Structure formats: structure tokens, C-alpha cells
Amino acid sequence: MSLRKRTFSAVRWTTAGSISKALLQLIQLAILARILSPSDYGLMALVLIVMGFAALFSDFGLNSAFVQRRNVTEEQRSSLYWLNVSISFGLMLFVIAISPILAWFFDNSELIPLVILSSTSFVFAALGIQVRMAAEKALRFRPVMIVEVIASIIGLLSAVIAALYGLGVYSLVVGMLVSTIATTIMLWIYVSSGWRPMLRMKLDDVKSFLGFGGALVANNIVNHFNLTIDLLLGGRMLAATQLGLYSVPKELVLRIQSVVNPIITRFAFPLISEVQNDVKRVRLIYLQTVNMTASINAPIYIGIAFFAPEFVSILLGDGWEGSIQLLQILAVWGALRSTGNPVGSLLLGMGRADLSLKWNLSLLFIVPPVILYGSKFGAVGMAWALLLMTIILFIPGWYVLVRPLCHAKLLEYSIAALRPFAISVIAVFPAYLYANNFHNEIVKILIGLIIAAPLYMALSYLANKRWIDAMRELVFKKPSTI
To answer: Residues with Cβ < 8 Å from 277, sequence gap 6 or more?
Structure first.
């Protein structure tokens, strides 16, 4: 199977898997929200904060290092596997040990058993994650996506049954753990291709991977801090109501990226790793990745920015009118941020996690002061600070991260990233004007979609034809061999 055919197969299956899992998450939320109380979800949110930060250390970047390295011996792979399991086991013990401190910090003793139970997911996931990464490295996404969707269904059913039996917040933990365990079991049965790790764990086998992995973990920590610093500072500088009005639109904006971007970037990393010595092909793959993500995200974000009052009314209801302007600003911020997200695949594929770390460390001297200044003008000022900072950093980001690795020129990078947003504005604006003749919020959005969607596709055919051709080939044709 040619590289191009494997790539298109990866895109198709990643798309199907991502959409299916997103729908299952919505179904689970719709069902459990009618069984569990808001306090259950609030308690689980605290657990997820702890788990999210701890997860940054779960494999010390070893699995990404495994994907990035082209030639890995069986001895190295086995040592990496057992080291990953050992690190995850140690992380579980650490989280268990600090659970009383976390309960004291959040002033909630119910966190202790929840955190302890949830922490076991690190070990269950570690037992199968390298099998998944090996399949993705070979661009074998079909079995991985099937396993993940089936495991999500099993987790959903488990959570619902547990909730019906009155387990409360524990039903959310049960769903997560059952899904994780089911994923690991099915990966070994259907994806491992008969591979089994040797009983071997030697430092000499893995020490060459530790530099990349350590830099990746450090980078993820700094990047996570930069991404959440607005909420941390907002919690100190803003009233609870203002912070709530700000955090919900931001979460919505980021959730869109979390569904759309991995469809493309999840396979871009192993693909770039495979051709990393051919800079011309790396540049072509990266620019196409940027254009693909931008072409999908752009109409969504621009549509949200124009129809923010309607979205807030439908999704959030009364009392959230203060989020309308924030959603408009953050939608544009999210649109621009989504164009920079694929650079992670480029950096990892080329083995330059260190460059990403240096960039994010430098942002520590920029992001907190800018956000702190913006917070003096309330939630809106904080949102504007995020947007203006993203605009200003567009060219420096290209110069430091993109240009050295794939030699892409600023003009071609800007065209790939920004052209879809110009097309989106041209398509959505007349749809917005016509939709304003109606009063019902749902009708407005439907009318806007009916007008903007075909107009966007037509304009893309004229000005962004490579994306149209790629989507048509992706959906209807078998890709040609290269």
C-alpha cells in the first residue's frame, strides 16, 4: 500500500472515529445529565483537573519518541514498553499518596476515593498504548479507530448502568475505567499483530529516547500552563460570574479544535516522521495539513462569531448574554490558534521537541503579563489580550518553528493558513445578513447554514481548489499511487 493510500485511509478512519466518539460523548452527557446532579459533575471536574495535569507525566514522552524514531530494535521497544508501564505505575502511586493533600486543597474529602480509583487508569492505559502508537506509526488507523469506538460504546453503557444503580459520580469514573480497560484488551487482541514485549528493561536501550521524551514532557507542562494561565489569573482577578461567562465560551472553542484538528494532525506526526529526511515532502505535507485544518475550522469559527447571539441562546439559555461578545472574540482567537496547532506534528515528526520547549518557555515571559494586563479590563479585556497576542505571534511563530524545519516561506504559509478564513468571511457575511430577516434563533442558524455552506464550497473551488480536490478524493475516490 503506497504512502498516499495509507494516508488517505488514515484520514478516513480518523474522521469516522473522531466524529463517532464525539457523538457518543454527547449521547452520554445527554443521558447522564438527566440522572446525575450538577454537583456530581462539579466533583468530577475537580478529579479531571488532577488527572489532566498528572497525565502530562504518564509516559515521559517515550511513546512519541518511539513513533518519531524510524528504526527501533525489538530490545529497545520492549525496554520502552516496560519503562512506560513502570512510570505509569509510579505516577499512580504518587497521585494516591497526594490525594489527601488534594482533598484538603479543594476542601472536599470525597475527592480521595475518586482520585485513587481514577489514578488506576494510568496503568491500564499504559499496558496498551504502545500497541496503539505502533499501529499509528504504520498509519494503520482502521483497527485503532474501530477499537476506540467500540470501547467508547462499552464505557457509555457501563456509565449509564452504574448511574441507574445509584452510583452517582462514581458512574463517571466507572465509564472512564471500563472504556480504558476495554481499549487495552482489544488493542492486544486485534491490533498487536502478534507482537509481545520481551522481559527486558535496560537503560542502554532507552537512554537515547529520554532526551526527546523529557523535552516533550517539559514542553507539554509549559504549554499547558500557558493555555490555562488566563483561568488561573482570572480566578484571582475576576468575580466568579465573570470567570464563568469567560470559561464556558473558551471551553466550547477549544472543544471544536479537539474534535477537528486530531482528524488531520493525528496521522501527520507519523507521516512526517516517515519522510523526515526529505525536506521538500515534509514542507508539502505540513502545508497541506495546515490548509486542511484551517479549511475545516474556518467556516465553523467564523459562523460562530457571526451567529454568537443565537448560539449562546440555544446552547446556554437565559442569563448568559454576557458571553456573546466573549464568544465572538474567542471564536476568532480559536480560529487563528487552530492554524498553529499542526506545528506540533511538524516538531515531533522532525524530532525537535526541544525547539517547541524553547518557544513555549519564551512565551512564559509574554503570556502571563499580557493576560494579567487584560484582566484589569474584565473578562472581555482578557479575551482581547488572547486574540491580539495570537495575531502578533503569527509571524514570529512561523520564523522560529516552521521556517527552520521545512523551509516554508512566509507567503505560502500565510496562504495555507489564512486563505480559508477570508473565504469563510465572504461566504458567511451575506448569509448572516439574510438570516437576520428571521426572528427564531434556530431558523437563523439553519438559514445561515443553507446559504453559507454551498457558497463556501463554491468559493473554495475557485480559490482553494487543492482542498476541494483532496476532500473529493478522500470521500469518493481511491487515491493514486506515489
So the answer is: none
Q: In degrees, to the nearest 5, what angle opens at C-alpha 256 toward C-alphas 346 and 386? A: 75
Query: What is the separation, in whole angstroms, between the first and last Cα of the chain?
Result: 10
pLDDT tens readout for residues 24-39: 877 877 677 678 766 6
DSSP sequence for 448-471: HHHHHHHHHHHHHHHH-HHHHHHH
Give every CB contact of residue 96 below 8 A, 6+ residues apart in sequence.
Answer: 115, 116, 119
pTM of the model: 0.68
Q: What is the CA radius of gyration of the chain?
A: 23
Distance CA 228, CA 241 (A): 18
Cβ-based neighbours of 180, under 8 Å, separated by 6 or more: 121, 124, 125, 151, 155
Distance CA 228, CA 334 (A): 14
Q: How far is CA 262 from the centre of its chain?
A: 6
Burial 341-370 (b: 16+ CB within 10 A, else e): bbbbbbbbbbbbbbbbbbbbeebeeebbeb
Give the span between the Cα atoms of 295 and 288, in whole angstroms. Answer: 10
Contact 375, 234 (CB under 8 A): yes
Kindly report the length of the chain.
482
Cell of 83: 519503562
Distance CA 83, CA 74 (A): 14
Task: For residue range 219-272, list pLDDT tens digits in order.
Answer: 777 777 777 777 666 656 666 567 667 777 787 788 777 777 777 776 676 777
